[in-house]
Specification:
132 residues, alpha+beta, 38% strand, binds coenzyme A, 2 helices, Thiol Ester Dehydrase, Chain A, five-stranded antiparallel beta sheet
């Protein structure tokens, strides 16, 4: 999987149980997925169509770093589907563990918000690089 970004769990991200608020994590996954999709498709005009099931397997605590990774699963005419993984990283133990993962789909849109083609040449390049 390709490294996308790191988020630091701050006091303001904590929910009522002392763990990272789930909605904050969803927002981080969406932001990371959208930025990776935009990078791959060479455009800022990628919109989130779908986020699949997210199961929060491990709690994230204040001060944990959350490292987000992505992998291309499918490239269609206007859409790209990515597997997005969020791992918590503890600097003191050097341990990186999966917190959650999900499949997300992004669509390339035009100025009116309608789907447009990613393009065959770029699609082949994305798939070629995903395999290497
Ligand atoms: C994304 C959006 C532009 C797509 O428009 P649409 O009219 O549904 O588009 P289409 O039916 O032509 O589908 C576009 C692509 O999405 C794919 N798609 C549609 N529904 C899908 C689904 N349930 N699961 C996976 N892919 C899906 C289609 O297969 C197509 O992919 P392809 O071109 O690679 O073959 C439109 O749904 C939209 O604006 N949604 C709101 C997005 C948004 O605001 N997101 C922010 C979060 S609220």
């Amino acid at each position: 999987m390709k490294y996308i970004s790191t988020k630091v769990c701050k006091t303001s991200d904590i929910g009522v149980n002392g763990n990272l608020f789930g909605g904050a994590m969803l927002s981080w996954l969406d932001e990371a997925g959208a930025s990776f999709a935009s990078y791959l498709c060479c455009t800022p005009n990628m919109i989130t169509l779908k986020m699949e099931e997210v199961i929060f397997k491990k709690p994230v605590k204040m001060g944990h770093h959350v490292r987000i990774y992505g992998e291309v699963k499918h490239v269609g005419k206007s859409s790209i589907s990515l597997l997005i993984n969020a791992n918590r990283f503890n600097f003191y133990t050097n341990l990186e563990e999966t917190v959650c993962s999900t499949k997300m789909t992004f669509v390339k849109i035009d100025d009116e918000g309608n789907p447009i083609a990613i393009g065959e040449e770029l699609k082949e390049k994305i798939l070629r690089e995903a395999k290497s």
